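User: I've been trying to design a sequence by hand for this structure and keep getting stuck. Would you show me what you'd pick, starting by listing the structure so we're on the same page?

Assistant: Good idea, let's start from the same input. This is the structure you sent:
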């Protein structure tokens, strides 16, 4: 069946998978798409109008419904409406810029940016660049000390028996765990490269399927992170559809063939901006395929006694204490309502800091709050 798929059919199936992934995750995290909730909405620009009840529910519901219609009708106006509505909602609340939503909407963008009469292979190559970037940049960005430390720690916890632990899935030698840890970033980046060549493409697909399969198994085994399961399954099915029977003249076709303004737009999102993030930190990390790289900053916000008393009652539920001092863990608080992690950009935590300090008698007083990165050893 896969061998007989046309380019047009491949595009259509990947489009449907992208929409289904979003729909499933919107059901999983419905409050992410409304503003009537405990966790504050964080707009990119202060002048943006923030929809309030009932308009936030109407917009979120409309986004959900039009995606269902788009699955079956596949009209260009529907695709662009979905893209623009997502863009607006993501600008209104940046916590919606999660990798699984971003990848799906970037896929829809890569399809709709071309005209309906465009050659199917042009569109197919644009989508393929997104999947190449997903694996290549996610691997490259993992080459950092924080990832090595956290990854080796996790491997030792579940695959080492040196300390006599009975929690290990299987016992693997320490030398192997250490070598594998340092190889992981380049193995993942290699997955993207393998997809470029006819002779290695199927190995790349099998490699990717193995990775996503293992991740999905571990998520269920460990009992958390279920929100990324649909994303893993979506990518597994998509890479099979896109790459298993694909034949090209050379590895650079995806980048330079059918070179036009649409291709330039896709290259900006898949090559130029991720490269800028990797080298200079310009552009958001998660939007640069910076996935599970361990070097993103997640914060605890310690608050003084005055602010502890003055914050609204609904925030008190999230107080945690260390040496008698109250603090808020941003990820825990965000996940309560949004069901996703706190968006890890410095501007976001600074916005939250200003928001929390606004409840103090003197918001500009020093020492009201203290931001502490908790997920990395400094």
């Amino acid at each position: 069946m896969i061998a007989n798929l046309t380019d047009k059919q491949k595009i259509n199936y990947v489009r449907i998978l992208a929409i289904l992934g979003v729909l499933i995750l919107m059901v999983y995290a419905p409050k992410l798409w409304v503003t009537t909730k405990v966790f504050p909405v964080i707009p990119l620009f202060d002048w943006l109008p923030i929809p309030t009840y009932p308009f936030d529910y109407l917009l979120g519901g409309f986004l959900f419904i039009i995606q269902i219609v788009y699955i079956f009708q596949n009209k260009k106006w529907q695709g662009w409406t979905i893209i623009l509505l997502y863009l607006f909602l993501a600008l209104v609340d940046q916590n919606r810029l999660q990798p699984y939503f971003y990848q799906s909407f970037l896929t829809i963008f890569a399809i709709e940016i071309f005209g309906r009469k465009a050659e199917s292979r042009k569109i197919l190559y644009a989508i393929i660049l997104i999947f190449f970037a997903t694996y290549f940049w996610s691997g490259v960005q993992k080459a950092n000390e924080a990832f090595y430390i956290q990854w080796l720690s996790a491997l030792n916890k579940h695959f080492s028996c040196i300390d006599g632990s009975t929690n290990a899935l299987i016992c693997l030698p320490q030398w192997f765990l250490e070598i594998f840890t340092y190889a992981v970033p380049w193995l993942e980046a290699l997955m993207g490269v393998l997809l470029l060549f006819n002779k290695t493409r199927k190995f790349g697909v099998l490699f990717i399927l193995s990775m996503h399969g293992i991740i999905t198994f571990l998520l269920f085994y460990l009992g958390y992170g279920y929100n990324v399961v649909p994303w893993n399954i979506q990518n597994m099915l998509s890479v099979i559809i896109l790459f298993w029977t694909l034949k090209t003249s050379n590895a650079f076709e995806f980048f330079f063939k059918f070179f036009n303004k649409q291709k330039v737009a896709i290259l900006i999102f898949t090559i130029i901006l991720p490269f800028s993030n990797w080298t200079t930190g310009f552009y958001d990390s998660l939007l640069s395929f910076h996935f599970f790289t361990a070097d993103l900053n997640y914060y605890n916000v310690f608050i003084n006694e005055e602010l502890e008393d003055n914050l609204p009652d609904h925030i008190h539920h999230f107080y945690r204490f260390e040496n008698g001092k109250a603090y808020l863990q941003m990820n825990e608080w965000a996940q309560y309502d949004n069901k996703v992690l706190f968006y890890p950009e410095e501007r976001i935590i600074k916005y939250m800091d200003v928001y929390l300090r606004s409840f103090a008698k003197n918001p500009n007083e020093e020492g009201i709050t203290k931001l502490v990165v908790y997920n990395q050893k400094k």
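That's my pick for every position. To get oriented when you compare it with your attempt: The longest strand covers residues 299-303. The first helix runs from residue 7 to 28.
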